Amino acid sequence: MITLYEHPLSPYAQKCKIALYEKGVTFDLKMPTALGTGQVDAEFLKANPRAEVPALIDDGFAIFDSTVILEYIEDKFPTPPLLPRDLKARATARMIEDAMDTHYEPINWGMGELRWFKRAEGEQARVIEARAAAQARGFYAWLERHLGDQQWFGGETFGWADLSVIPYINGSTGQGIGPDGSSKLGKWQTRANARPSVQKTAAAATDSIKTLANVSEAVRLRLFKREYRDHRLEWMIRSGGLDVVLEGIKTETIRFSNEFH
Ligand SMILES: N[C@@H](CCC(=O)N[C@@H](CS)C(=O)NCC(=O)O)C(=O)O
Hints:
Elements: E1 2-5, H1 11-22, E2 28-30, H2 42-47, E3 55-58, E4 61-64, H3 66-76, H4 87-115, H5 122-147, H6 160-174, H7 184-193, H8 196-209, H9 215-220, E5 226-227, H10 230-238, H11 242-250, E6 254-255
Parallel strand pairs: 1-2, 5-6
Antiparallel strand pairs: 1-3, 3-4
Helix pairs in contact: 1-3, 1-6, 1-8, 4-5, 4-6, 4-10, 10-11
The chain binds glutathione (GSH).
């Protein structure tokens, strides 16, 4: 029995869900209680000492980190394969995944910090948003060079790189900084969104946005303590939000990664 701890808006969890749907695997979804608040869910912590989604439990065996989970899914359920056969194409898929997870992700996350969590307003928010949009555009050019004239990033079949890119590109579209629909990447996005695996995952994410309506108030009341981990912390500082970080530390509404016990 497979259980995936997730949050519908987590792009890392979305990658794993798309992979499981593509392979026709039956699994249960579970949301940790109080994710993002900094409170401890003891059961979840057993599955992932980092207290982050996703975590996958396969008959009592717990795995964390979306990349490790994807590798496990690919090894356990090899058909249909998501990684290409060719050695260089496999390396490219893994590079694209890593770039999206560690360089691209904070762009959307940062937009969420501004728009949903209201970390900055006025001129400061405009500066940070403009940086986010410019960084996204740079990334789109890089992604289009990888895509070239292919249907999918790995060639003729939807695979590892595609499922690693689509959650982020859809997230950016939601934030109003997505690719132009008539561009190569925009057309690829339409193709990817037509897949049932992506449709189901994206619909759950869209539904979940409603739950964020009062989330800035929850930050103000210090009920939310957001995780500013590695690339996210760097992104906020480099994009003009040093004050956001300092204010978050002062008001105890941000935290860093969990310590292992
Ligand atoms: N490198 C990890 C990153 C996972 C991660 O950052 N997950 C976020 C959600 S997108 C999380 O659960 N954060 C915990 C929190 O905000 O409390 C992976 O690939 O699984």
